[in-house]
Structures
1.
Amino acid sequence: MSIFEIKDVRKSFKNGEIEEEILKGVNLPLQKGEVTALVGASGSGKSTLLTIAAGLQPASSGQLLFDGKNLTDLNQEQIRQIRAKDFGFVFQSSHLVPFLTVEEQLLLMLEVAETTLSKPEQKKEIDKILKIVDLEQRKKAYPSSLSGGEKQRVAIARAIIHQPKILFADEPTANLDSKRSKEVMELIRELTNTLGITTLVVTHDEEMLPYVDNIIKMKDGIVI
Amino acid sequence: MKIAWKEMKKNKAKFLILGSIVFLISLLTFIISGLANGLSDDNASLIKDLPDGQFYMSEDAEQTYNLSSIDSETQEEILNKHEDAAAFSIQRGFVNDDADKQHGVVFVTSTESDFFENVKKGEIVLDQSLKEDGIKVGDTLTNNQFDDEFVVKGFVDQKKYSHSPVAYINTEDYQQMYRVEDMQLIMIPDADDSLSFDGLESFSNKAFLNTIPSFSAEQMSLNMIVWFLVVISGMLFAIFFYMMNVQKIGLYGILKAIGIKTSTLFKMMWTQMFVITSISLILSVSLSQLFNSFAPDGMPFSLSMVTTIQLAIVFFVIGFIGATLSGLQIRKVGPLQAIQQGEV
């Protein structure tokens, strides 16, 4: 069943006098509980497609159908609410808040998502997620004392703590070595299965492809 | 979660530096404000302590009180009409004490009034600063323009004019010394500028203070320093938060991407500004009030709690404006910027 559908999405940028079309009518359905990978050469439009799907930038035309709504019809505040409650994000860099501990990063996300959990329930949920990402012992650590792999696992924990429906990951293993990259992809794979999340991941690393259900190849702004 | 507080706790040094600067600037502002007010009292407490109303001097005096002369007819007419009104004169002079030491004073005499000391013939009431010079009640003082002697009847608290202590004397003694019959000025309490008299120019209390030589120049210079410091503190907040915001653009972008409201980011910045300003002001207000209590006797320093609180409110407002102006860039940060940037 398709939970999110990208329909004929186009994106153009003005480069001086010339209008450059980055996405030329992309159609892509995302199935519930599956990991879909967007692959392609640099400049193929995969990251642009991911950021448009995630509501981080508007499409020039087309539709983004999610939960019975077309995201392109919504205003900024409505999109923000969807990002806070229904979407999770993992980026190339972990982008953790430098002055919050691992536990506080997750607590912040729960607050942003306006979850109805009580304080003890929030603590319980944080412990559960930290156990999944194997960071129970680093609960009180600040980002500055974490390794690159640990930071990215915290970023993943932050992206899923509020139980989003869709996880968007933009090159989540780009800054990690091969071993750590595999660990992170295994984690994303496992979480998608156990929590029933739908994942759209952008990667250029072919070694990551065994961990995904669908591979979508892009070239020059179209799906091939 | 108190995200603003968490940041301050983690980056103590950064916020301590800003807090210290705000503390020093606000302390300096309070001290200069205390000096401005002290000098103002030293220059014109005689007038400042009078109730709000209107002052009158003759038009031909061209706003110079000691050239003014109000004829007795006009004076009587006004005093009969306005019960609280008082006619008075001010003249610089000096008195010699028992040891023939000369003390500069400003002689003040008035018609019977609750606002001025009523002194009998041959008596004199002095500002308390002359007590500190060794003059006591019962001492006799002389003046080369006065045929008789003055007996010191008492002292009054902080009554100065043009940086000189006031000496209240009887009108007859005054007339003998300065060989004048007419008073220079009339003061009508609670009157407004609609009340006018032929041949007399009217002044509000504030306008009359400005006729005192050097008063407005002195106050303008000091007040300019005070407001300059207030503006500097506002700019300091703006610059500090601008620098911090520039450093945190990536972070703001990512927080926006995960769904944090822009208003939450503004609240975070305002909280930090409020905490820093509050702590800095508590310290500087306490220290300036302590200085107010222990300032050396010769130093004209007067800092009321009302003035301090007013200035503290101005600091809050200016800090808020400074931080908000610098924070406008937060609104412009797009979530996408964070993704395109490196680690925050």
2.
Amino acid sequence: MKISTIKELLEADVICCEEELTRHVYSACGSDMMSDVLAYVKDQAVLLTGLVNSQVVRTAEMMDMKCIVFVRSKIPTAEMIELAKESGIVLMATKKRMYEACGILFTNGLVGNRVKNV
Amino acid sequence: MSEVLNFHFDVDHEDFTSAGQASVQVKKNLRQLGLPPEIIRRVSIAMYEGEINMVIHAGGGTADVNVTEDYIEIILKDHGPGIKDIDQAMQEGFSTATDTIRSLGFGAGMGLPNMKRYTDYMTVQSVVGEGTDITMRVNIN
């Protein structure tokens, strides 16, 4: 799924790295616990979270994730935006809640369980 | 690449916000060496979890990364409170983290299990009241 499609489906506002919207993601993960996110490798994934601190961006960076969607209208800090820009990670915010946002992406074909243990 | 390359980092405990900087730097260094992305990702995640652990549990410490022809070795040392029961700490879901740490997205009891999951070799040596040494290796081939 293109990141631009995620933006449209979730009626999200792009916060940074708009030039990366044409990239594709192949799986998704919704969590506020970063160690749970780190537990499984996902190729080119999007992270949906309601957590706002710089470790969210670092976690995505470690996982080679391409996009972070902040749910419930959470807004990342300036420091987080800078970190995301350095790594080319798209940040966006949606008014939708976690359950709804995940459901919309799932029903539109972005299946979350394409994960593999290493 | 017959020589051993070493990267040394002091992990600061003062600031949770900046935790992970050493892991980010290691990731950059390994990319410059042209190592496979999957290997880099495994090393980065294992080191990141270790770095976060040192910040939230042990008041910081040191991290050394050795790159050899056959494997990448991560050595983490701290002078924190130590781990009473290592077998228990290795279980997924077991954590002694505070609610504050949990509210920051960590302390789910996945740190040490994740470090083991992403590495080919891992040892944990800990003395209560003295500190913890962790050695991890990820094979390159």
